[in-house]
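Service request form, structural biology core

Requester: graduate student, group of Dr. S.
Request type: structure prediction, single chain
Budget code: on file
Notes: please return the result as structure tokens.

Sequence provided:
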Amino acid sequence: MIDVELRAWRPDDAHAVLDAFRSPDMAQQAARPIETPEAALEWMGVWGFRDDAQAFAVVAGGQVVGNVAVSNIDAHGNGWVSYWTSPHARGRGVAVAAARKLADWAFRERGLFRLELGHRLNNPASCAVATRAGFLPEGIERAKLCYEGVRYDVERHARLATD
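Core staff response, request fulfilled:
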């Protein structure tokens, strides 16, 4: 498996965020378009103002190649995991390694017990990442997401601190 480092986002990472969000499949993953260095900095900065979340830049071979985060941390010790990788870094196990490291961090450092994530059913690559990172499938949430007027079913996965 590829070795990755998780670290805080830095202002000089804006170019990596811009590059990633230029990919058509990434464009819908942010609340607003990320098309300028200022927008990339704003995206990174939002994570720093949340008590219920932590995002990390994923670094492989000295280069930022993705993001992994836990958010919506609640009083029950639950959190929501998300991840993305830049198109040029896909297919090498980066997201799997990052999701595993994030889970270890969340259980150890944040004291969380349950981590959840979801992926559209038409995204088998994300399903493979979740499964390989130890997140077990728990069921289908029908018509949960809506992109450009089209509803998508989502498969939910979870990993427990005791898994």
